[in-house]
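Lecture notes, continued. The same structure-token format from the folding unit now serves as the input rather than the output. Read the line below as a description of shape only.
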């Protein structure tokens, strides 16, 4: 696409932004359902969910490392990137973590509806970054005004808006955030011409998980509990934290050792959350999510991990929203502190 045609279409995208955004449902960043602008097939339960990591691993560029122009294959086709991007807009917390991992501060980012609008572990690095809406309600007009030269997002979040976004700037989409976080990061590296740097970051992560595996005594099972408004989840292997535990060789309780994002249970069945260690948190206010009430109930207090002082509250915006290498590294450090002291 030429620059002139992209500029012309950007005007149309701006005009359509209000109509498009009002069709999107407001939800939290970890709501894995189709929110009106996302692609249903790649959400939990969708036919393309389970293979998102393998499919994403096939994407990228054949250009020499760091060389431009380049063509990038991504979830929505191919995108031509003429020069090394300098003004990047990110549409989810994973892409925000990814670019910061590579030393790039974006010009635009989205906010979440969790306890922190911006993940707390990244907040100090993005104080001056413009907000372009929430994850599920993008403001295309603000994005256009930022004059980006690259937009990074995913089909899960904004598939229906891809053409409008691409009319503003070259846009590269992964399939979905979450468990394919390493493959997504590699794709971001390809789009930025920083594939070697991305490989170095992932190699550092791999060494850290191997060190954790060596440091943990025995084979303890790790249970993951997340309280959310109107739902209670036990997280499975197809999640950010599930992938990290697997990379570190850490076992899961049988109920959570599943190739799914999560198992949803009722608070009355919280006794199913057992494991040698339990890590728990809330997406939002603990009073609103039911965490405060649940932790005083017998189903919780009777868990062996609770009785043995092996139940730990963790930061939600790291353990469940830290969808990139910086967040993953902090989780590995946390696990090392909890499991090896």
């Amino acid at each position: 696409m030429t620059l002139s045609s992209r500029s012309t279409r950007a005007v149309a995208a701006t005009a359509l932004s209000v109509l498009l955004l009002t069709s999107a449902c407001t939800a939290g960043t970890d709501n894995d359902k189709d929110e009106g602008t996302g692609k249903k097939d790649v959400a939990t339960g969708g036919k393309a969910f389970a293979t998102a990591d393998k499919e994403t691993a096939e994407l990228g560029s054949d250009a020499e490392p760091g060389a431009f122009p380049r063509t990038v294959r991504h979830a929505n086709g191919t995108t031509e990137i003429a020069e090394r991007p300098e003004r990047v807009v990110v549409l989810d917390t994973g892409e925000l973590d990814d670019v910061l991992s590579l030393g790039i501060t974006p010009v635009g980012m989205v906010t979440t509806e969790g306890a922190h609008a911006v993940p707390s572990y990244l907040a100090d690095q993005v104080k001056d970054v413009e907000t372009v809406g929430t994850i599920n309600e993008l403001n295309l007009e603000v994005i256009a005004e930022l004059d980006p030269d690259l937009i990074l997002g995913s089909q899960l979040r904004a598939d229906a808006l891809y053409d409008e976004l691409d009319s503003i700037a070259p846009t590269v989409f992964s399939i979905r955030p979450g468990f394919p976080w390493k493959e997504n990061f590699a794709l971001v590296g390809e789009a930025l011409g920083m594939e070697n740097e991305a490989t170095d970051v992932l190699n550092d992560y791999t060494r850290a998980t191997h060190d954790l595996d060596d440091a943990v005594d025995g084979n303890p099972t790790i249970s993951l509990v997340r309280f959310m408004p109107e739902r209670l989840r036990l997280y499975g292997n197809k999640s950010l934290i599930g992938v990290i535990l697997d990379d570190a060789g850490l076992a899961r309780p049988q109920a959570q050792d599943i190739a799914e994002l999560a198992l949803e249970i009722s608070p009355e069945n919280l006794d199913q959350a057992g494991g040698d260690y339990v890590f728990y948190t809330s997406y939002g206010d603990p009073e609103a999510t039911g965490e405060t009430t649940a932790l005083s109930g017998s189903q919780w207090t009777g868990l062996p991990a609770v009785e043995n002082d092996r139940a730990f509250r963790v930061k939600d915006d790291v353990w469940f929203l830290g969808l990139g290498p910086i967040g993953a590294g902090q989780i590995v450090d946390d696990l090392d502190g909890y499991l090896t002291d």
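Point for the exam: The chain has a mean pLDDT of 91.
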